[in-house]
Design goal:
3 domains, single chain, Nuclear Transport Factor 2, Chain: A, elongated, Arc Repressor Mutant, subunit A, about 325 residues, five-stranded antiparallel β-sheet, alpha+beta
Length: about 325
Amino acid sequence: MMSSTKVRIDERDDILAVICKETQSYFKLDFDQWASCWLHDERTMYVCSSQDMGLIVHKGWDAVYTNMQRDFTAGDNCKKLDVKRENLDITYQQGIAWATFDEISLNENGDLDESFQTRILEWVDGAWKMVFLSLAVRRNQDQRSKQLAVTSDGHVVWMTKYMSDIFSADSSEYAGFMISAGRFRATNPEFDKALQNAINRAAELHSYAAQYRFMKRTGRGFRYPVILGEDEFGSVISCSLSVRDGVTYIDLAQDHALERRLLTSKVIFGLSNGQLALSKHIASGKSLTISAGELDISVNTARTHLTRIYEKTGVNSQTALVRLLLSVG
C-alpha cells in the first residue's frame, strides 16, 4: 500500500489558494470563479450535512453545476463576514491531495458557524482542481442565546458571545450558575451535585450510536429539563440539557417547548388565564415578587393565584410546579 506524504510548502500554498478561492467566490456570488476551482467530471461530488437541514448530496459535475448555479442566481449563499481555518492538514499521493480542517465563520446576523470540512483535489493540466467537498456543520448558534456546551465532567468547551460576556470574570454568577476552574457549576453546593449528575448522565449519549438508539426509542432528540430548586429569593433554578456534536449543550433560557407545555397544562389542570401567566413566569425562573411586578398585580394576588395552582396541580412548591409543567406533553 502506498502511503500519503506531507505536501511541500509551495504545493500546500497552491492547494490552500484553490480552497480559499472557491470559498471566497462562493460568498461573493461569483459563479464563474467558483466553477473554475472544480474538476468538471462525473466523479465530482458535493456533500453538506447539518442537524437542521439533514444530508444534501450532489453527484457528478452536471448535478453540482445545476444546483449551485440556481443557488448563485437566487443569492441564497451564506454571507460570511469573517472566515478562519483551524487544524488544517494536507496530504497528497500521486497527484491527489486531501485537505481537512475546521472552519469557523461569522455570518451577517452575528452568529457563529463551525463546520468540519474535507476537500479532495486532483492535479489536472497543471492546476489543482477540486473533485470532492464534504461539509459537516457542527454548530450554528445565535450568539445572543443563553447557551454553552460542556464535556462529561462539566468543563466548558464553547459558549455564545452573550454567555461569554456574562461569565467573563471568575466571580460572575448568572441565574444561580457560575463557571469555576473552567467548569459549569450551580452556586448552591446541593444544587451543583444534582447538576453534575445530570451532566454526567447526558454524557452517556455523546457517542453517535448511543444517541441514535435514544432517538429510535423515543422518536426525538434528547432534551432534559433540570429543576434544581429555589434560591433564597424564591426563584426556581433550572436549565435544559441537550446533546449534539458529542457534547452536552446547556440552555439557561426558557425550555423551547414551554409555551406548548403551559397551554397543555392549562387544559389538563383547568388553570385560569391569570394562573397560566403566573405559571409561565415561575417556570422562567422568576420569583413570586418579580412575577407579580411584571404581571402588574399585587404580591397577595400572586400568592392567591399560586395557592389555586397548587390545589389544581397537587404540588406544594414552586420547584415541584416547574418540574410538573416541564414534564407535560
